[in-house]
Amino acid sequence: MKLAIDCRMIGSGGIGTYLCGLLPYFVENHQCLLLGREADLEEFRGGTSSVEILPCHVEPFSLKELFCFPSDMLQAINSCDVYYTPYCNIPGRLFGGGIKVPIFSTIHDVVFLDIPELAGGLGTAVRRWFYQQAVNKSRCIFTVSQFSAGRIRSHLNCGAVPLVVTYNAVPHWFTQEDRGCRQGERNQDLLFVGNIKAHKGLHILLEGFTLARQRGLAGRLVIVGNASNFRTGDKGILERFQALPEEAFSFTGRVSDSQLRDLYRQCRLLVQPSLYEGFGMPPLEALSQGTNVVLSDIPVFQEIYHDLPVTFFKAGDSADLADKLLEAWKLPPPPPLDSRYSFKRSADIIFRTVSEICGK
Questions:
Q1: 118 Cβ partners below 8 Å, 6+ apart?
Q2: For a surface tag, which of 3, 108, 158, 280 has the fewest beta carbons within 10 Å of its beta carbon?
Q3: What is the pLDDT of residue 96?
Q4: Cα separation, 227 vs 238, whole angstroms
Q5: pLDDT under 70: residue ranges of the chain
Q6: How far apart are CA 260 and CA 4, in angstroms?
Q7: HSE (CB half, 13 Å, CA atoms) of 277?
Q8: Distant-in-sequence, close-in-space partners of 305: CB < 8 Å, separation ≥ 6
Q9: Helices 120-137 and 146-155, packing angle to 10 deg
C-alpha cells in the first residue's frame, strides 16, 4: 500500500509532534509519498527507496490550498492508494476535482466549538466548516481521546463515518539520552507549559500559586513562553503577575524540544491547570522525565491519567490547587512511565483501520 502523507504541519506545535511520532512507523511499513518542506522530511527518507518526498510549500488553510492546489501534486497524491493528513485541512481545486483516493484525516479536538468565545462568531463558523468538510470527505476520522471523539460526535454530523481513537504519546527522541535527575539535583521550580488562552487555566494557577506561597511554598513559577505574550494578552493575568515578587516567577522565552525536555528534568513539579484539552501532552512528557505532576480533574485528564502517578485537583478551584501543590511538593519522584501510550501502537491502529476500510 502506498500512502500519501501531508507533512506540511511539521514544526507547528502539537500536530507536528504527533505526525513526527507516527512517521517512523509509516515509512517502515509502507511506501510513502511525503508532502512538505524537504528540510523537514530528509530524516524520514532513511536511505530507503520506499520514501518519496514531494516538495510542497502551499500553506495549510490558505486559499491556494482550498481552491487551486497544484494539479501535479494532486496527480501525485492520486497515484497513491490512500491520503492521510494529521489535521482537518484537505487540499483541492475549485475546478478540476481534487483528491480521488480514500482520505483519512484527524481532528485532535473541537475546543473552538466547545468554547466559541476563543475565536468569535466568524472564526468559530470557519473552523466548524473545516471540521465538517474533513468528516464529509474522509473514510475515517482519527482523534486522540475518547473525550474528543464524544465532542466531535456532539458538534458535527458524522453519519456513518467511524471515529477511531489513536492516543497521543511521548516521541522516542524525547526520552533518548535518558540520563534522568535524582530528586536532590532538581531545582525548586514549578513548570507551566501552555498559553494564555482562558481554557489553559493560567489565571487559576497564579491564584493557587499565590495561596501556596502564603502558606510556605518556596518554589518559583517558570512559564514556558515569552513574557510579552502572557503580559499583554490579558489584563487580569498582567495584574496577577504584578502582584507577585519578581523573583517568584520567570519566563523561558521560546524553547527547543531538547530545552523543554531539560526543563522537565530539572523542575520539581509540572502544573497543568487546564479547563479543557483534547489530550494534554505536558503531563505525559513530564512523567516520562521522572517529574511529578499536579493537574486538573477535567474529564479528558481523568481518561488519560486516571491510574498514573499524578495529583489531581478540582478544576477551577485555586484553593484546592494550593493544597495539592503543597502536598505534591513533598512527593518522591514517580516511577518510570509505562508504555500504554506509544506511537507504534497508534500507528498500528491507523494501519489496521486503513486496511480494513480499503480492503487491502
A1: 111, 112, 124, 197, 198, 199
A2: 158
A3: 61
A4: 10
A5: 46-49, 94-96, 177-184, 226-236, 238
A6: 31
A7: 28
A8: 283, 284, 293, 295, 312
A9: 100
Name the nearest CA neighbour of 41 among 26, 17, 23, 66. Answer: 23
List the one residue out of 274, 221, 275 whose CA is nearest residue 251. Answer: 221
**Assigned C-alpha cell, 273:** 491547570
Phi, psi (deg, nearest 5) at residue 89: -95, 130
d(CA 93, CA 78): 14
Residue with cell 526543563: 263
Nearest to 272 by CA among 340, 213, 348, 194: 194
Q: Which amino acid is it at 2? A: K
Owner of C-alpha cell 518554589: 219
Q: Decide if 286 contacts 270 (C-beta within 8 A).
A: yes
Which set of grid coordinates corresponds to residue 119?
475565536
What pLDDT score was predicted for residue 229?
Answer: 58
Rg (C-alpha) for the chain, rounded Å, is 21
The residue written with cell numbers 467511524 in the block is 162
Find the angle CA(122)-CA(127)-CA(128) to the nearest 5 degrees.
Answer: 95
Q: With contact defined as beta carbons under 8 Å apart, do 298 and 315 qualify?
A: yes
Sign of CA dihedral 85, 90, 93, 96: positive
Task: Give residue 183's pLDDT.
Answer: 46
3-state secondary structure the chain: CEEEEECCCCCCCHHHHHHHHHHHHHHHHCEEEEEECHHHHHHHCCCCCCEEEEECCCCCCCHHHHHECCHHHHHHHHCCCEEECCCCCCCCECCCCCCCCCEEEECCCCHHHHCHHHCHHHHHHHHHHHHHHHHHHCCEEEECCHHHHHHHHHHCCCCCCCEEECCCCCCHHHHCCCCCCCHHHCCCEEEEECCCCHHHCHHHHHHHHHHHHHCCCCCEEEEEECHHHHHHHCHHHHHHHHCCCHHHEEECECCCHHHHHHHHHHCCEEEECCCCCCCCCHHHHHHHCCCEEEEECCHHHHHHHCCCCCEEECCCCHHHHHHHHHHHCCCCCCCCCCCCCCHHHHHHHHHHHHHHHHCC
pLDDT at 225 (0 to 100) = 76
